[in-house]
Automatic annotation (TrEMBL):
<dbReference type="InterPro" id="IPR000212">
    <property type="entry name" value="DNA_helicase_UvrD/REP"/>
</dbReference>
<protein>
    <recommendedName>
        <fullName>DNA helicase</fullName>
    </recommendedName>
</protein>
<dbReference type="InterPro" id="IPR027417">
    <property type="entry name" value="P-loop_NTPase"/>
</dbReference>
Length: 189
């Protein structure tokens, strides 16, 4: 079984991170989030809620209106794309494969914020850079484009583009140079 290091998941105590968010969203969609949090509190575990919406419909409306922060939107999109059962299975598998020492890991799951200054030979981007998918101009969401810059510059040897970047690159004419998405962000334009 592959070993996984979670640099973006602070612990097994109810944790604040992506896994906790998607897990709680699945429970919200099923209508069992409150019972889950109460069971955590009853057991003495940290019952921090990552999802600040009372219903799945309210969360979906916030997503539609574009008011979710990037972390919640990424988790929402994951649950929408994969469904609750697949997400919960993946979360359980990731947690079962978790190792405490990064040097023992076959795979490292991290956010861009946590990986600033770090590098790896091989990096695969997740599908959670919303401005690219939505076609947002870099001047309108500078922070997210800066995070994308951090993400793509973590790879020393190979970078696997996410679905949105692959689609963006494939829309170019064969003789045309790829767009310089980050030129406005870095001030080079």
């Amino acid at each position: 079984m592959p070993r996984v290091y979670l640099s973006a998941e602070p612990g097994e105590d109810g944790g604040r991170g992506f896994l906790a968010r998607v897990e709680q969203m699945c429970k919200l969609k099923r209508g069992t989030l409150e019972q889950h949090l109460q069971a955590l509190r009853d057991s003495g575990a940290n019952a921090h809620c990552e999802v600040f919406y009372k219903s799945w419909q309210e969360l979906a409306k916030a997503s539609e209106d574009g008011v979710l922060d990037a972390e919640l939107q990424g988790a929402f999109d994951t649950v929408q794309r994969l469904g609750e059962e697949r997400v919960e299975q993946a979360v359980a598998a990731i947690r079962a494969a978790k190792v405490a020492d990064k040097s023992q890991a076959d795979y490292i799951f991290s956010t861009c914020h946590k990986y600033k200054g770090e590098e790896e030979d091989w990096v695969q981007l997740a599908d959670d850079f919303r401005p690219i998918a939505a076609g947002v101009d870099p001047n309108e969401d500078r922070d997210e484009y800066c995070l994308l810059f951090v993400a793509v510059t973590r790879a020393k040897k190979a970078l696997v583009l996410n679905r949105d970047l692959q689609q963006l690159m494939s829309q170019q004419d064969p003789g045309q140079a790829p767009p310089l998405l980050l030129s406005k962000v870095s001030g080079d334009a």
